[in-house]
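ligand=pyridoxal-5'-phosphate
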Amino acid sequence: MHAPHLVERYGSPLYTYDLSVLRAAHADLVAQLPAAGTLLYSVKANPHPELIRELYRVGCGVEVSSTGELDAALSAGVPPAGILHNGPAKTRAELEHALAAGVRLFSVDSAAQLARLGHVAAQHGVTADALLRVNGDTAPAGAGLAMTGTASQFGVDAGHVAADPDAFAHDHVTVKGLHFYLGTNVADEADLIATFRTALEVTAALRPVLRRPVEVLDLGGGFAAPYARAGRRTRYPGLRAALEDLLGTHAPDRPRVLFESGRYLTAECGRLAATVQDVKQSKGRTFVLLDSGINHLGGMAGLRRVPPLVPQLSADRPDAPDVTCDVVGPLCTPLDAWSRGVTLPDLRAGDVVEVPNVGAYGLSGSLIGFLSHEPPAEVVLDGDTVVHASRLSLVRTEQKGR
Ligand SMILES: *Cc1c(COP(=O)(O)O)cnc(C)c1O
């Protein structure tokens, strides 16, 4: 649907998510993975319950890393038994909430976290299942943000597990298998396959010291998609065959294999529309000032190495000449710039611009509280039909002391 039309109806700025694009991305990724694998949606990329609901409806599992993400998944109708709870520093309160809600599968990142899970499970009179998140001892080549191989706050070093396997056991926890997440946004197919090979080699190396068979093997992901610029999700034509080969070699006991993805599933379905509020010159530069900035998109410092965001003009003005400009937002800090020195059509106040491919790490990866601007509306479309419209709000509630 045309962005200016939606902006007129729901206000500016405005996120849209198209479920038809979401389903296509899901079908694409599933087709590139081994048929026997299960794909989990990483809610971190976009916790909108309507996106979680649709992905669950088409067969996706769900992976959460906080109480808020868990509640979003539950509110989307995902049964707790199908949810994997991740997170490197889960608190007692988080574990209590998750166990009380019926979640039974947890990734644990250390012996202490496993013991904490066991303790809370015992108090609830249940036994929880766990996947031990493991770091290999070598870094796979070119794996985006390094999450393993080097020192890491995530997981436990494979060497520590091998040295003291008894530390990773508890009466109220069944260690069902291992969890890896060795890279993110890995566009090169050979690099991506290398991360999976590393995970499977580490699994094979640890198998003799583990007290139980590896029934579940979460191989993570790293599937790449464009962020805030034009482009399409990456295709991995050789991935499926390579994974089937690797699994046959390194996991002949046929564990249940899980994969995880956030950005590949949701990146392309989302667009952010904003409205030009002012265009002005300063010392020879042109500044385009929008009603949206790093409070709504691109505020996450962790997104380092991201190329400049490149908005596109929605207003039909084919005759507009190109100008070089800085695209900045409404926040009172010079850091609030989506891009500097980009070429855009000559914009005027009132024009609507759109940033494509921001369905992943858009609003939830932003500085939503900074400067206290109202969050943008979020409109869920299915093709041309609006199926849901809502707006987040930050609400201060009274906190009673204990
Ligand atoms: C962030 C994260 C994901 C999702 O990463 P994407 O790049 O969005 O696919 C999956 N698993 C774990 C453990 C993560 O931390």
